Structure formats: C-alpha cells, structure tokens
Amino acid sequence: MGLNVVIMGPPGAGKGTQSDLLAGNRSLPKVATGDILREAIRQGTPMGLRAKALMDQGQLVDDATVIGIVRERLARPDAVGGFLLDGFPRTVAQAQALDGLIAERGLAPLVVVNISVPAEELVRRVLGRRVCTTCGTNAGPGDTAVCGKCGGELVRRTDDTEAVVRSRLEVYDRQTRPLVEYYQARPTYREVDGAQGAEQVTAALEAALDGAQGLAKSAGMGQPA
Known about the structure:
By secondary structure, the chain is of the alpha/beta class. The protein has a domain at 3-29 and 76-117 and 176-219: Rossmann fold, CATH 3.40.50.300. Helix content is 51%, strand content 15%. It has helices spanning 15-26, 33-43, 46-56, 63-74, 92-105, 119-128, 162-183, 198-219; strands at 3-8, 30-32, 82-86, 110-116, 130-132, 138-139, 154-155, 189-193. A hairpin with a 5-residue loop joins strand 5 and strand 6. The longest helix has 22 residues, at 162-183. It is globular, with a radius of gyration of 18 Å. The two termini are 20 Å apart.
C-alpha cells in the first residue's frame, strides 16, 4: 500500500522543512502547490495558462484550476507509489476533490498530519526569522549574518512585523479551521506538537505516519464517500 500524505501547519510551524525531510526519508515526491503552479505556468499547460491569466488580472487562482493542476501532477509516474502534499488542500472544496481523486484511482487513504504550534511561539519564531538576499533560504535567529547555504547576506523580511504575523495567523486559522474539522474525525488524522525541537518534531511526524498507515492497512480502509 502506498503512502499518501497531507501536511498541514500554520506559517512558522516548520512545515516546509519537515515536509522536505519526510519526503526524503519516505522516498515520496513532495508536491507543493506553489511549486507546481509555477511549473505549470512555465510549461504552458492548459491549467497553467488559465492560472497565469487569472494572476495577470490580479485575481486569486480558483479552486477548480488549483485542483486541475494538482490532478495533473499526481498523474505522473513518480506519484503512483505515494506522494506528500504541502499547501494543498487549502479549502474543503479542494479536500473533497482530492478525496474524489483518491477514490477514482483506488489509491491508499490519505494520512493527514497537522503540525500544531501555539500562536505566541509562532510569532516569536517568525520575528526572529531571516532570509538570504541571494538564494532566498530562511534562517532562524542566530549570531551570524551570513547564509550557511550560499554565503549571502541574511536580513529580516520587511513584512515580518508582529502586526502582520498576527494577521497572517488569524487568516490561516479562519481558512483552515473548516479543513481541520473536515479531516479530524478520520482514523488517519494526526496532530503533532510543533513547539518541540526540530528533531523531536521529525520523530513525532514519523511515528504519526507509521501509526496512521498501519491502521489503514490493518483495517483495509478506503476513502470516505
């Protein structure tokens, strides 16, 4: 049985870093919405062209287009044995479409893991975050002003103010609460304490995936209708 994972978490929870680690450890393709959206636009796929047209008009990319781009990506051979989704779904409509895709293709049930971190800890992390002016790598608080990846200068993002961070978290909470409610009754839904150290979070995520995947296997579970 393949492993199909959705990773959720608020800004500053370390979701991107943990997703990279999990995808590498489990030999799964990491499917990040922003990455595949940019790729679809670059390749000029029908969905990519639609997304570009909307973005050029200053509009948000609609659910149908995002779902279409994800569907195209998950149809590739490397995703047949499983995948890890980062940044999708963002709405209940997208989650329902993903369920339909899983059922249509007879894939293993989704394992959904939500990285939970208290708001005050998230604010502290983001306010201490710096970004490399050369390669864009994010770095946490530290004494060095030099990027460990490329040697570029590390600076604080201009939009990383307390007011902006708290506003982002409020928006995330409003948008994500219905999605959490949609998933949390499932036996393959897990929450992980993201306020721990990075290594502890990784270990907790691995354990959550093992437990949820084992449950799905033993029960012969399928996706909900």
